[in-house]
Design goal:
The chain has 95 residues and is of the alpha+beta class. It contains 3 helices and 5 strands. The protein folds into 2 domains: 40 residues, no CATH class; 54 residues, HU Protein, Chain A (Irregular), CATH 4.10.520.
Length: 95
């Protein structure tokens, strides 16, 4: 299952009781915060939930699967999520 921004907005609307427009504004603000703080510090920790970590990938050689030609993949930054031990324990709880 994937959770879209619209689904998340609806859930905030139901749980908190804000209007749909206000809920969307809060969801957009959260995503913007994650983006800005991750760019600024390289790591964003949410206690009891997990961390968003910016990793830098170096330039590397790759292969086009369509035609088999060698190409070079540019260096880039990727955002990784590492769940906290609390979240892992909750997910692995036996029923």
């Amino acid at each position: 299952m994937s959770l879209t921004k619209s689904d998340l907005t609806s859930k905030v609307h139901e749980k908190v009781g804000l209007t749909c427009a206000e809920s969307l504004q809060y969801v957009n603000s959260f995503f913007e915060l994650v983006k800005i703080e991750s760019e600024k510090y390289g790591i964003l920790k949410f206690s009891g939930f997990g961390s968003f970590i910016v990793k830098e990938k170096s330039k590397r050689k790759g292969r086009n699967p369509k035609n088999g030609k060698t190409l070079y993949i540019k260096e880039r930054k990727v955002l990784r999520f590492k769940p906290s031990n609390v979240l892992r324990a909750e997910l692995n709880k036996k029923p």
